[in-house]
Design brief:
The complex is a heterotrimer of chains A (234), B (323) and C (289).
Chain A lengths: L1 E10 L2 E11 L4 E5 L6 H9 L6 E6 L2 E2 L5 H7 L1 E4 L11 H8 L5 H14 L1 H5 L10 H13 L5 E5 L7 H17 L3 E5 L3 H7 L2 E6 L2 E7 H6 L1 H9 L1
Helix pairs in contact in A: 3-6, 6-7
Chain B lengths: L1 H24 L4 H23 L9 H18 L4 H23 L6 H20 L1 H4 L5 E2 L10 H25 L1 H11 L1 H6 L4 H27 L1 E2 L1 H5 L1 H14 L4 H19 L4 H18 L3 H21 L1
Antiparallel strand pairs in B: 1-2
Helix pairs in contact in B: 1-7, 2-7, 2-10, 2-12, 2-13, 3-4, 3-5, 3-10, 4-5, 4-10, 7-8, 8-10, 12-13, 12-14, 12-15, 13-14
Chain C lengths: L1 H28 L6 H18 L2 H29 L4 H27 L13 E4 L2 E4 H23 L1 H11 L1 H6 L4 H23 L9 H16 L4 H22 L4 H15 L12
Helix pairs in contact in C: 1-5, 1-8, 1-9, 1-10, 2-3, 2-4, 2-8, 2-9, 3-4, 3-8, 5-6, 5-8, 6-8, 9-10, 9-11
Classes of the chains: A alpha/beta (234), B mainly alpha (323), C mainly alpha (289).
Amino acid sequence: MLEVRDVVSGYGELEILHGASMSAGESVVVALLGPNGSGKSTLLKTIFGFLKPKRGRILFNGEDITGLSPETMLSRGMAYVPQQRTVFKYLTVLDNLRLGGYLLNKDEFERSLERIYAIFPFLKERSKQIASSLSGGEQRMLEIARALMMHPKLILLDEPSANLAPIMVDAVFKEIKKLASNENISFVVVEQNIAKAMDIAEYVYVLDMGRVALEGTHDAILDVPKMRALYLGS
Amino acid sequence: MNAFFNVLRKSLPFLAFLIVLPLFIGRESYALHILIMAFIFSVFAASWDLLGGYMGLMDFGHAGFFGIGAYTSALASLHLGVSPYVSFILAGASSMLFGLLVGVLSLRFASRVYFSICTLSFAETVRIVCRNWVDLTRGVLGLWGYPTFPGFSSRMSYYYFALFFMILSISVLYFLVEHTHVGLVFRAIKDSEVVAEHRGINVTIYKILCAIISAFFAGLAGSVYAHHILVLIPDDVLSAAVTSLAIGMVVIGGRGTIIGSIIGAFLVVTTSELLRAYAEVIYNLIIFGLLMTIFAIYAPGGVMGLVKRGQKQISGIIRFSQK
Amino acid sequence: MIEYVVHGLLLGSLYALTSLGLVLLFGVTKVINMAHGEIYLLGGYAAYTISGVSSPYLGLVTSPFIGFLTGMVIARSLYFPVERLRIPEADKHMLFIVATFGLSTLLQNLMLLIWGAFPVRAELFLSGTVNIFGITMYQQRFLLVALAIATIAVLFIFLFRTKAGLALRALSQDVETTKAMGVKTDRLYALNCGIAMSLAALGGAVVSPIFWLAPSAGVELTGKLFAIVILGGMGSVWGALLSSLILGVVESTSVFFLGQQWSLVVFFLAMSIVLLIRPTGIFGEERLV
């Protein structure tokens, strides 16, 4: 579904990705691992259109989407949840979801909302509450729910475990796995938490210095001694 | 140091022209008055540029400092019986004091908007006080009867006084921003406040210092104005229109270059006088406002910036044709 | 004494109407509009002229439209060109402020040209008094205050019950994320600017039969509005409403002791106190409502 070919990208003069390639199929969870500065977040931002690649191509469902705007990505079925907390703190849960479904018309929105409430019942209960009253993990899930409003086929997640207590991390990752299999959504997950990410990922890419240093299925990666050590260690 | 003398050398023809001009156009000519105003406003505009161009702090109440200087100088020489030379210094000092006040009030914050808002309100407040404290300032009836600088009572002699004042003030300001440590810090803060803080610079103190210096020169300019016109009316020296003149001159001439203020001042003063022969003052002001807005958005470098761009293009063409 | 409080509240509601535009603009786009007082005067002059040639109610209705159009023009010609430039945010804000100040000068002199320096006032179109809770007040004032309150209510409905209003509230909290939701921010900025200016113009129109209009009065009003907005918290709508009422009462009572001409000085003192003690104001800067 998603194909990234030899993408070179960065911020202005600074080049971070020096030719990265990856792909993701349907209903899978793909993990992007690697040390700080290796380009994981940059890759996600480039895919979603926040950054224009200097070279390389990105294909989504067979169509070339290289360098198109984030709004276009949204309408084509891709969503992005950034690393930092992006819930609208002072708006209600319902308002947050409304913004997620901003581009939908009234009927589409109602249907989407119903679906979201079925997946995340706690959001229905708390719909009138201010988003900042939710716990860290709940806010993360609100962000994912918000992304789900547009029925995306692919969701890019940048460090979903960041700043979350371990129990919440478990809950969030469990939810991601469920969504992938139940709702036919693919996830590309950038993570520092190697163990958690590999627990739910079918395919893993390890980035280093702006290139893919290692890739393979979940099991194949675990066979690599260094990776196994990191997995067990973290 | 070399750069400073370099600029001095380049402006010599212009200065020479100004020096000999009165000999050709008569001792009491109206043109001399216009040029005196240009000299005064050059300093006024340059002092605004210190804050706005070099520090990035937009002062919308600069007329407040100008007016305080003017009234202090007039009142001191009138009621305290001191020589206008002394009241000249007092004018600078009192403006400095108010600069300190406004600075302490509004420069302590990271957001620069507080300063802009505060200066606007400050100038309006001073204007209203001067209008209504009739016992002190005679309000809109006008304050007059105070002496001019002894030895400079003729218009031509005041011309040279004002010219000297301008050359000295501009030189000091220019030297300050381009060749002293303080000026370097000012520009560093404008580039990036965060980085400057990291380097251990107390940004707030420097901002306040800049405001004080700027107010000082504005006050001096106000004093020179007061002793030239010899009648002070609150709206003439304290209204937003006066501030707008300074800002417009700097924006049109070129921000962040002291020389730009002079260019702007001369351009504005002379062209508005020329236009006055053809149309009423009001149209001048409308065009002025329009130009200021347009320059602010579409030509932020002002005339100086356009000239530099033109120079680059021309030298590019020359190089190209030489190949 | 009660009389002064009530009149202060009435005055405050008129201030509230006019300052809301300033808050809206700053809250969503972080732009300080130095020409807000002049837009207010523009609305007032428009109402004055229109009520002079036809119905005063027409004046009240047309002024906000004129304000809205002005806002859109300002957005297209001043805001968008600067937004596109590749310079740091802070520099952009500085350019805006200077440009709006230039606009202020331009408008002042334009109004001077068209309507002259002599203060004018629209015709009172309701005479007589009305008695509310034992206080007697002119029907005219009462109508206009009611209008102000109604407009504020409509604004709230807009902010809380429409998609665009929701987007504006979101924009005031987090621009990047709002863009990520697919919201077309350019159009919203223009709409926001239009609404802000139409509120200012309506403020002027509402007041045109009561207070005198003169081109030079804009700056003083802008100064007062800034004091109101700083007291309430720069980006906060509730803050502006509350502090409008407070300062309205303050002005009303201080007028009794000092006279009308010193009201700006009082506002400036109040603002200075706020800046010294609690610069973020009553409600702070974080959100619009």
